[in-house]
């Protein structure tokens, strides 16, 4: 009997479109001998649409939102509130009453990558690919993530955190503190986001004020970091309690930093795999990646990102991404390809890890 995999994509996230592309890749490359696919789209409003076709949505041109119920004959919208058990939501009525064996969330960012969807799946007792509730939540919160890194001795760059209400109450105090503690340039980020959405680099006070206002539109918590003159490295981790780590890759952004444009739009950023760095540095990065994976209680997959400070030679950990871009040409997949695990096998392993973890927790 084939394993039924519900691929969940879209969602109430700034990374909705990125997710459609990841879902399309998974659905095209998954081994059809072994798996049956049930596509489950989530609209930008949060409605669940069964049978939605990410390929068609992408062809319609990005940015595109999932329509209310798709043209597909079998598709219909099930508002979660009207249907308390996920099992009944994801069992197809028409052709097959059998339930989904495992969910493959390829939802990036808010509500998909941050533990919310994972919590829902836990409650419904469904196996799912990737990190659990805690790991997902920690991986999404750039403040808490750094606190744990510091706790286990992983080097992070200088940063400060404040809330939107503090900013509104005493902006001058916050600006002075940032200038004294961090100086320029600084990076201003919404604490819980990804794909560089809402992130700006500030070179002076005027830009800093603007950057804080932008970040505050996305999140009630804002992280400001000292700008590091750096090269950027990433590596991929795969596994549960005995994770393995890929070779190290380098990202060379086409813009001043790796912003949303450089990531998804202008197609000029370069990826170098394996990275052109001394072997000791690569080993150090790989070791830190595993350490971070364990420290944050991650499982399944994660891409762990680093900065190499060009001025000091120091390696800093930047962040983890618990549901990294997952197309065939995304860094995560390419790192494994270069490490001897082709994309279809990667999907296979991730599903096995999900089932294993679910089994462990019964
Ligand atoms: P996201 O989760 O949105 O990818 P990141 O924290 O990785 O957010 O920041 C996005 C990009 O911004 C990084 O890949 C890097 O190019 C740049 N960046 C972020 N923080 C810093 C920093 N402290 N110093 C230098 N560049 C940074
Ligand atoms: Mg990120
Ligand atoms: Mg990043």
What's the CATH class label of the largest domain?
A: Alpha Beta
Question: What ions, cofactors and ligands are bound?
Answer: adenosine-5'-diphosphate, magnesium ion
Instruction: Label the structural class.
Output: alpha+beta
Rg measurement, Å: 20 Å
Strand order of the largest sheet: 4-3-2-1-5-6
Strand content: 15-25%
Query: How many independent structural domains?
Result: 3
Question: What's the count of strands?
Answer: 15
Low-confidence stretches: 61-93
Instruction: Count the DSSP helices.
Output: 13
What distance lies between the first and last C-alpha atoms, to the nearest angstrom?
22 Å
For the biggest sheet, the summary is: 6 strands, mixed
The CATH topology of the largest domain turns out to be: D-amino Acid Aminotransferase, Chain A, domain 1
Q: Based on the structure given, which CATH architecture of the largest domain is correct?
A: 2-Layer Sandwich
Multimeric status of the protein: single chain
Shape: globular
Q: Identify the CATH homologous superfamily of the largest domain.
A: ATP-grasp fold, B domain
The secondary-structure element order is: EHEEHEHEHEHHEHHEEHEEEHEHEEHH
**Helical fraction:** 25-40%
